[in-house]
Amino acid sequence: MSATPPSVPQDPWEAAYSRFETPEREISKFMARLRHAGADNWPKESAVVELFCGRGNGLQALARIGFRNIQGVDLSPRLLQQCTGTAKTIVADCRQLPFADHSQDIAIVQGGLHHLPTLPDDLDQCLREIRRVLRPNGRAMFVEPWNTPFLRIVHAFCNNFLARKCSAKLDALATMIDHERITYEQWLTRPHAILCIVDKYFVLEQQSFAWGKWNFLGQPRS
Ligand SMILES: C[S@@+](CC[C@H](N)C(=O)[O-])C[C@H]1O[C@@H](n2cnc3c(N)ncnc32)[C@H](O)[C@@H]1O
Questions:
Q1: Which of 25, 69, 71, 108 is a good FRET partner for 139, with 20 to 30 A between their CA atoms?
Q2: How many structural domains compose the chain?
């Protein structure tokens, strides 16, 4: 006789993240970001690791662009269970990466660094780890929230009850922000410290600050 597994209560942040965007919408967004960074010209046999990969839609985007050697790392086994596709996924803390020195060609983080509990120490540790695992001619790509005028407008809508009632997506975003408020605000209010640590480990190739996002592409600093 098979027993019914006890239902695992979903973490409220993860529940809001799951309803923020459909997987297809998220995959298209990630493909557009990767293409903007130049991913169509990166060798498709590159060893690519997506850190803080969540439910894995960034891994799907990489696969659709043609990468064949993809791995994902996240702290949440519940989110990694939702990953489909052929990428290998690993439950681990991105402050201690489960990879050998200089074993990866490309490391990608989309919306993960702002979840680290302490700034600057955890960011320093995580970026040092990313530099350690990248080959000397490797690439790091980061996309994280940034306190631009657009983001301030989004925050104003998040604080508006009626706007949240009218938009399920806005309500999901506001709920996520509520649950990650400490690390989110810490991240948004320390831009100088963040960019100094990034500069310590990576040489800038491309960078932009627009539409509430910081987009960074760089190479490991030797
Ligand atoms: C905003 S989500 C981003 C997920 C995915 N990159 C995306 O954009 O959909 C942040 C993710 O970071 C993960 N996370 C938080 N702290 C972590 C850590 N120290 N190491 C690995 N993953 C972590 C969470 O489990 C969550 O999946």
A1: 25
A2: 1
